[in-house]
Design a protein that fits this description.
- By secondary structure, the chain is an alpha+beta fold.
- The chain folds into 2 domains: 136 residues, Roll (Thiol Ester Dehydrase, Chain A); 141 residues, Gcn5-related N-acetyltransferase (GNAT) (Aminopeptidase).
- The protein is built from 7 helices and 12 strands.
- A 7-stranded mixed sheet has the order 6-7-8-9-10-12-11, with helices on both faces. It has a 5-stranded antiparallel sheet with strand order 1-3-4-5-2.
- The longest helix is centred in the middle third of the chain and has 19 residues.
- The radius of gyration is 22 Å and the shape is globular.
């Protein structure tokens, strides 16, 4: 394999080498490099805004590794902060080739290549890579956006929003179903982020809390895709909607576990924590 540089990649997965991953020579045990590449591939699908299992189910296939190679240039050591870069370098009729590289800063430590075949899960016989998947992957590598955020009324977006909110709030967080949906949905501005397969992956709503004050709520992101930019994009779209209608402030009731997320987006805490639907919350706000 040729030497690769950071400029060859759009996608990077960051991690720190753990003590359990080094051998008696105090360098990363060779088998762990394949684990690093495999972990990066999982994060690559998140960068595409594709929940892997749902995506493969909708495409009526799955990806199977047929070959994986690793080339060593230099070793990573315990506590090194490294970045695993990954790109889809070729899509054939039924195969997808991913090229990977591990960097410590700008130093290229490891090269890797993983070849997948798209196949029928029942028979594990190969089948053509679906055009939709081909377009998404090539689009990502070309720098295209992977999601679009639509604003609208409940009559337009309610079906998609409610399905995702039910998965997150009712099924995952066990909030009573009768509390999840209320009359405010009918007058709220809703935002739904969809990936390029048309799957709803994040949602939220904006209501009028008081004259000049908007309130964001029901912000939900597909569990598999959290940690990316989806929640941020929905929140930004709703904030822009509040600004466009002349609101001076946006407030929200943040779950305590998400407080840091909102702080990084410029929200400030106000008042004391409180319980809402059995979950600890705190009010946060930002000025427009």
């Amino acid at each position: 394999m040729t030497t690769l540089t950071r400029a060859d990649f759009r996608f990077f997965h960051r991690l720190r080498v753990r003590w359990a991953e080094v051998d008696m020579q105090k360098i990363v045990f060779n088998a762990h490099y394949l684990m690093y590449f495999d972990t990066a591939i999982a994060d690559y699908w998140r960068a595409l805004a594709l929940p892997y299992q749902d995506t493969m189910d909708s495409l009526e296939g799955d990806l199977y590794v047929v070959k994986a190679t690793v080339e060593f240039h230099a070793s990573a050591r315990v506590d090194d902060q490294i970045e695993v870069a990954m790109k889809c370098s070729r899509i054939g009729s039924s195969s997808m080739i991913f090229t990977g590289a591990i960097f410590r800063g700008d130093e290229h430590l490891i090269s890797g290549e993983i070849i997948y075949v798209f196949a029928d899960p029942a028979t594990q016989t190969s089948k053509p890579v679906p055009q939709a998947l081909r377009d998404i992957v090539l689009g990502y590598e070309a720098g295209e956006a992977m999601v679009s955020v639509q604003l609208g009324a409940w009559s337009e977006l309610g079906t998609a929003a409610r399905r995702l909110r039910t998965e997150v709030f009712v099924q995952e967080q066990r909030i009573p179903k009768e509390l999840e949906h209320d009359a405010a949905d009918l007058t709220a501005v809703h935002a739904v982020a969809c990936n390029r397969l048309g799957q709803a992956v994040a949602t939220g709503r904006l209501i009028a809390a008081a004259p000049g004050v908007a309130q964001v709520g029901r912000l939900a992101v597909n569990r598999v895709l959290r940690g990316g930019q989806l929640g941020r994009q929905v929140l930004q779209a709703l904030t822009q909607a509040a600004r466009a209608r002349g609101d001076a402030e946006v407030l929200l009731h943040a779950q305590r576990s998400a407080e840091g997320f909102y702080e990084r987006l410029g929200y400030q805490r106000r008042g004391e924590p409180f319980n809402e639907a059995g979950i600890a919350h705190v009010e946060m706000f930002t000025r427009l």
